C-alpha cells in the first residue's frame, strides 16, 4: 500500500510498515503531491473541486476562486468568481470554454480567451454545471445546471439563451456528467440518463442504500466511453451500458435503453471512480471500525484498482493514501478526477491534491532493485532499454554483481561480468583487481575476454600465476583454453620450469609445459615431453606440425607407446619416413618390426617384397595364425626357405601348403593323412588338386582304416566312382556308419541323375525355343529394291526395265543373286546353297527364296 509523504515532490510510494514488510506484490500506481502553486493556494484556502484537461487543470476553492494550473501545479490564470465555495467547474473538450457554479447561486460560462458568455445569479445554490463536450462549435452552445432543477440552456439564432427544464421534483441534483449526446445526473432518488438528440429520458437507476444521506455520501458518475456509464453510490457500484432498441420493439418507448452489466458491493464508501482500460480505479472513504483497524489508519482514503465482474469484483491493488488533514475529512470532501489522454488520476481533498499515475518501466525496475531482485531488474532493463529513462543497463548489472559478491556467490558474479561488462575493458580490469583483492581470481578466470577484445597481458599472467600457486589442474585448463597470444609465453614457460625443479615428475606441469612449447613453436621440445609422458596428443602434434624428421630416432618409443597409431602414421607418411629407414630403426625390436611389416603387407602385397623372406621367420616367431595367409598371398616369398623354417618348427599345415605349391602333392597328402590324420582335410586337398593319382593314393592309404573309409564314402561320390572304393573294401571289415554312408552315396547319385535330367529338359526347351525363333526369322519377307546388288556379278539385282522378265534368288542369309549367276545345284538335288556362306563353311544360306517376274 502506498503512502504520500508531506512535502515530497518526486514520485514515491509509502505503505504502512507492517504491510510493507509482508508485501511482495509490486504496486500498480505511483504517487506524487501536486505542489508548486497548489501548495501556496491550499495553505490559505481549501480545494472544493477540480476539473482535468489534457493541457491544464482548473481548481476551485472554498473562497470562491478558480485557478488555472499547468500539469506541474503552477498557476497560469486566476478568476475571482464568488466569495463562497465553488461547487463545480466544467470544461469542453477543446479546453477553450469553462462553466463555473458556486454555493451562492452564481453560474458563469465563458471563453478563456474571451469573457463573453453566460452570467446568471440564481436564488438557490447551484451544485453542478456541465458544458456540451463540443461547446466551442456554434451549433452546440448548450450547457446544463443542477440545483433543485436540471436546467438546459441553449443559445438560439438571436444569440439569446433559451432555458428549458429537463427534470425537477426529486431533490437536489448533486452530479452531472455529459458525454456525446447523453447527459447523466444524480439526485436524491437515483441516476437518470437523458438523450439530448432525441430529447428523451431513457433510464432511471435507483439508489440502493436510501439510509445514507446523499449530501454526505454523494453519487459518483463516470463515463467509460460514449455508451458505458459507471455509477458509484455509498458502497454500491453499477456499470450501465446504453444500447439501441430494436425498431420492432420501440412503439412509445425511447430509442435506447440501459442494461446493467455489472453490479456489486464494496467494503468502503465510494468517493470517486475512473476507468483504467477494462479495470476500474476507485477512491474509497474508509469506514470507521476500531475493532478491525488502528485509530490512525482508519480514516485514510484508499485508491484501489479493481476488476469488475458481473456480480462481484476482484481487487488488483490497494493503496492507503496519507493526505493532509485526512483525519478531518468526510466522504464528500474527496473527489477523483482523471485525464483521458494519459492514465493520470487526481485525488482531491480540501488541503491536498495527489496525482496517481501508472508505473512505467523505470518504476518497475526501481521496485525490483528495492526488493533486491537484481536479475529480474537486469532482464527488464535489457528488454526495455529503449524505453527506460532513469536507469542504465550496465549500472543495474554492476549493482547485481556487487550484490552477488556481497552474498559470497562469486561464481555467479563472475559469470554476470561477461554479460554486464561487455566490451568495456576498463571495467573488466577493475573487476579483476577486485576479485584479486577478495581472493577470488579463480572464479573470474574462465569468463575473461579472450577474443578480438582483450585485456592487458599482465592481467592474464597475474591469474595464471595465481593458479600456479595453488591449482595445477586449473592452470593446465587455462593454458588449454586461452590462446597463447593473451600472455607472455616465455615468462610463463620460465615460471613452469621453476616449479618443475621442485617437482620434476609432475605430469600436469609437464603436459602444460609441452603445450606452452607448442604455442611457442618449439615443437621438438614439446615432442620430447609428450614421448616421455606417452601422451596421446603426440601423434596429433607430429601430424599437425610435420615433425617426421624429428622422430626418425624415436620410432621405437612411438611403437612402444601405441603400436597401432604409430604404424598407421608411419605407413601414411612413407614419403617422409621411408620403409627402409623404419626397418633399420626397428631391427633390434623384431616384434615391433613384425607389426610394421605385417601392416605394410596388408596394405600392399608388393611394396615390401624384399622383406618377405625376413617376414617368414617373424610370422613363425610372433604371429603363426597369419603365416599361412601370408604364404598364400605373397608371390615374392622363397618357397625353399619357407619350407625349411616350417619343417624346423613342425608347422604341418604350412608345410602341406608349401609342398603342394612346389608340386610335391603326394608328399603333402601323405603328411595330412599321417601327421594330421584328418580325412576331411585330405579329401578337401584331393578335391583342390583334382588329380586321379592323389585319389588313388588316398584310397590306398585309407583302405585299412575304417574311419577314413567312412569319410571317403561320405565325400568322394561327386569326384570318384564310389564303386572303385567299395570293391577294394575287405570282406568282413567293420566300417562305422556304413549304412548311412551308402544311403548318402545313393542319394548323391539320385541327385546327380535329377540334375542331369533337369539340365537336359532345359537344353531341349531352349533349343526348341531358339529353333522356333530362327524359323520365324527366316520366314519373314525380304525387301528387294534397286539398291541391292547381285553378290556374283555385282550388278543391280533388279533390271532397269521392270517390264522385262527376270528371276532373282534370295537366300535366308540375305545374300541375293540373279538366277543365271548361280552355279548348278550341288550334290543334293533340288537344294541350292549360297556360294558366299558355303565358302565360309557356314550353313544358314541353304534356304532359298526365288523371285520371278
UniProtKB/TrEMBL annotation:
GO molecular function: zinc ion binding
Biased composition (Acidic residues): 13-25
Domain Vps41 C-terminal RING finger: from-to ranges: 788-839
Chain intervals for the UniProt region annotation (Disordered): 1-30
Protein name: Vacuolar protein sorting-associated protein 41 homolog
Stretches assigned to the Vps41 beta-propeller domain: 29-358
Chief site of localization: cytoplasm
Membrane topology: Peripheral membrane protein
Family matches, as SMART domains: CLH
Keyword field contains Transport: yes
Role played: Plays a role in vesicle-mediated protein trafficking to lysosomal compartments including the endocytic membrane transport pathways.
Subcellular location(s) per record: Cytoplasm, Cytosol; Early endosome membrane; Endosome membrane; Late endosome membrane
GO biological process, one term: cellular response to starvation
Keyword Membrane in annotation: yes
GO terms for cellular component: clathrin-coated vesicle; cytosol; early endosome membrane; Golgi apparatus; HOPS complex; late endosome membrane; lysosomal membrane
UniProt signal peptide: none
Keywords of this entry: Autophagy, Cytoplasm, Cytoplasmic vesicle, Endosome, Golgi apparatus, Lysosome, Membrane, Metal-binding, Protein transport, Transport, Zinc, Zinc-finger
CHCR repeats: 567-711
Superkingdom, taxonomy of origin: Eukaryota
Classification lineage: Eukaryota, Metazoa, Chordata, Craniata, Vertebrata
Basic and acidic residues bias: start-end ranges: 1-12
Similarity comment: family membership: Belongs to the VPS41 family.
InterPro entries, A to Z: Beta-prop_Vps41, Clathrin_H-chain/VPS_repeat, TPR-like_helical_dom_sf, Vps41, Vps41/Vps8, WD40/YVTN_repeat-like_dom_sf, WD40_repeat_dom_sf, Znf_RING_Vps41
